[in-house]
Amino acid sequence: MNKNESKYFKSAEKMHTALLTLLDSKDFELISVKEICETAGVNRSTFYLHYDNVNDLLQETVEAVYKDFFGRFGAVGPGALDVDEKNEDELFLVTPKYLMPYLDFVEENRKLFYLMYEKNEMMGAEKTYETWFKTIFGPILTRFGVPKKEQPLIMVFYLKGIIGVVTEWVRGGCTESKDEIISVIQKCIIKP
């Protein structure tokens, strides 16, 4: 990466951080380019070099946050699972091992998470989750002998259900403990 590319990415990171900081104190619709630039310490021309509008910044910020999240989650992802292992409890799709990092992430980024689902069409959040579910849960469903043809339908069921529970948790201010939310999710799902 040359010096100009490095500056470009550093400016983008500053604006991502500025947007997340501003989201802690105000609604997304009230955040202006001017505020983002002041908070990030960049010029308006720098903002418009990167983005057409605040929605573009939001979309890229969500992608950056998820990239960071999935990077942290990878340590307990499919590579950590021995899908040939006979221990069915380890292969249950919604163990705390998988859900706790996700719920930690959601709680840390609750405003961004909520905004992402309020603007679902723009953000493409479900596509991100579909990729995640295929990567993490595909090998487990295969291990349980679920036919490949049925796997996308089962994954959509998990995807919609877990997102629904977590979205309601965020709407309520994350007042229940993460252990309580994991328990609720596990009660809703039967092992394959």
UniProtKB/TrEMBL annotation:
Bilayer-crossing regions: none
One Pfam family linked to the record: TetR_C_8
DNA-binding region, residues: 32-51
Keywords, ordered alphabetically: DNA-binding
InterPro entries named among the record's database cross-references: Homeodomain-like_sf, HTH-type_Tx_Regulator, HTH_TetR, TetR_C_Firmicutes
PANTHER family given in the database record: ACREF/ENVCD OPERON REPRESSOR-RELATED (PTHR43479), ACREF_ENVCD OPERON REPRESSOR-RELATED (PTHR43479:SF11)
Protein name as annotated: Transcriptional regulator, TetR family
Biological source species: Butyrivibrio proteoclasticus
Organism classification: Bacteria, Bacillati, Bacillota, Clostridia, Lachnospirales
